Structure formats: C-alpha cells, structure tokens
Amino acid sequence: MIHGIHHTAISSSNIERSLAFYRDLLGFKEVFNFDWKVGTKKLDDITGLSDSSARVVMLKAGNACIELFEFETPSPKSVTEKRPVCDHGITHLCLQVSDIDSEYNRLREAGMEFHCAPQSVGDSLRATYGRDPDGNVVELLEETVASEMSIISA
Fold it and tell me: Which class in CATH covers the domain with range 7-73?
C-alpha cells in the first residue's frame, strides 16, 4: 500500500550552498546527515552505481522532506543551466506558502532568481517559479481558497 510521497531527492554540485538555500533561506530543518565512502555495497546496490561515495542531508518542512546529495564518485554530470521545465524528468519542486508576495520579495532580495512575479492562476491559486543554486525549479504556490490539495489552511 502506498501512503504518499516521503521525500524528493536533489543531487547538488555544492551541498553547503544547497543547505544555505533550502535550510537557511527557505527554513527547512535538518533531520539527519551522513557520508558514505567507496565500497559501501548496500548503497551501490540501492543507487545502481559502482564505487559511489556521497554526502547526504535530509531536510523537512511541514509534511515534505528534501534529501540533498553531493556525490564525490562517480563524477556527476551538471544539469543544463536553466533547463526548461518542458524537458522530460522532474520539472519542479513546489512549496506551498502563505503570503506569496512577501515570500517572493524576501527570496528575491536574498538573490533567488524568478521567472516572473507571482501570478494568479484561476480563482484560487497564485504561483511563480524560481531557481535554486543548481538551477532546479522551485515553485511558490499560494492557495487563496483551501482545497483538497491544501497542506496548510489558507
């Protein structure tokens, strides 16, 4: 039985920079962190990699967890900078917020790049897309009227 999504994992080129963004700027709390060295067979088996090594940090906010990886081996490929959200694969991470205008202004002033200012989408949503330090798309979403998708009260 599937209960829901536990976490989203992001491979980062610089985990300290990603922690500064997700933990320090966005306010996610660190749950745990660990490193694994080359020769950790169980993690090679799980990831489908050979001779892998990495640092991992799990973060949590509300009901959502983000797992950050910085692989030392094998050498990761960089994501295409400003990868279009129409390309196949995970397109974005969505964060439900209240007072989207304040969050947008706070994050923009801290250096986060956005595609546009928050926009109304239908009668009950406002949203905008921005980028984390590795170029991954992070959506800010405010539900102005509570719905079945709400994780917080509007």
Answer: alpha beta
